[in-house]
Amino acid sequence: MKAKVSWLEGMCFEGLSESGHNLILDGTNPGKGVSPMEAVLLGAGGCSAIDVVSILEKSRQQITGCEVELDAERAPEPPRVFTAIKLHFVVTGQDLSEKHVARAVKLSMEKYCSVMKMLDKALDASSSYEIREA
After folding, report:
1. Sign of CA pseudo-dihedral 96, 116, 75, 16
2. What's the distance, Cα to Cα, between the start and end of the chain in Å?
3. Which pTM value belongs to this model?
4. Ranges of each domain in the chain
5. pLDDT tens digits for range 85-102
6. CATH topology of domain 36-133
7. Which strands make up the sheet holding 3-9, listed edge to edge?
């Protein structure tokens, strides 16, 4: 996998992925785009949500929605790395099995989500879930 990051102005950069997608990164707050650490946090949420949806669909669950609420703590001094991340999955569907949802979240966190697998070596990661009827 390859990518390129190019300076636009100030502390604003454009990231371009090998697949042709772009993302604005900004070191000012608020800026014109997400901060690099926000991008990491969003990556963790996106990666894990993809896993949960995929696992539930393969389990023939009638899923209609999936959101991940992320809460990260950072070290107070530079480098201000993440020290903890909590992921709360809100899974919506019809007649969803709690057993299947719990399994999907666990598999994502412990086995499939490559972003979380990288991050959990350096921080305290936890997850929770709730099921909402569609």
Report:
1. negative
2. 38
3. 0.93
4. 1-34, 36-133
5. 999 999 999 999 999 999
6. GMP Synthetase; Chain A, domain 3 (3.30.300)
7. 3-9, 12-17, 22-26
